[in-house]
Amino acid sequence: MSVCPCRSLDVVKLEFDKCCRPFVEGLSLASTAEALMRSRYTAYVVKNIGHIEKTQVATPNEVFDKEEALKWADSSEWLGLEIKKTQKGDKDDNTGIVEFVAHYKDKASGTELKHHETSLFTRQNGEWKFKEGQIHGAQPVKRLEPKIGRNDPCSCGSGKKFKKCCGA
Fold first, then answer.
1. Is pLDDT larger for residue 114 or for residue 143?
2. Distances (CA, A) of 78 to 12, 28, 29, 73
3. 4, 8, 44, 54: which could join 19 in a potential S-S bond, CB 3.0 to 4.6 Å?
């Protein structure tokens, strides 16, 4: 009997088989927006990215990047889910909002991080789906390469200083 990953920071700790497993494996549908949110978090933990893709609204001209989602899931040690607040999203509603914090550790750096998001869910044909999310306090993007100074040689290989070439 293993504790479900979605409950690891909450007081109530249910078994995975009795909590998110039926949703993640497509055996049943989440009855509330919060239950779907919990199952989506758990899908990252157990690396079932198909559940993430299946439980979101299909948007024209937008493609879900399964490889990128799996890369994030693989590179993270998932520490727990904290539900901050929910609005609507019950069995009789058609929309719901869930504010949550996913706690995780970047495996490469060992840094503990938080993904704080407010997500909008909608019901389509009786099934809850993730529609969109707003990330709170998004962390700045880190440079992969060092910053080029104004007086450094230009990275294009022209031999000119950056400020006189591509930095002009």
1. 114
2. 18, 24, 23, 8
3. 4
Decide the pairing of beta strands 95-106 and 76-88: antiparallel
Query: How far is residue 121's CA from residue 148's CA, in Å, rounded to a whole number?
Result: 43
Sign of the C-alpha dihedral computed for residues 18, 21, 26 and 27 taken in this order = negative
Tokens at residue 3, please? 């504790």
Token pair for 97: 């909002």
Query: How far is it, in rounded angstroms, from Cα 25 to Cα 15?
Result: 15
Give the integer Cα–Cα distance in Å for 96 and 80.
Answer: 22
What is d(CA 53, CA 55) in angstroms, rounded to the nearest whole number? 6
The answer to whether residues 6 and 42 touch, using CB atoms and an 8 Å cutoff, is yes
Closest CA relative to residue 18, chosen from 37, 2, 34, 33: 2
Q: Which amino acid makes up residue 101?
A: V
Query: Which tokens in the block code for residue 153?
Result: 């040689």
Mean pLDDT of the chain: 88
Query: 129 has which bridge partners?
Result: 122
C-alpha dist (Å) from residue 77 to 3, 40, 130, 157: 16, 15, 23, 41
pLDDT digits (tens, 9 = 90+) for 20-56: 999 999 999 999 999 999 999 999 999 999 999 999 9
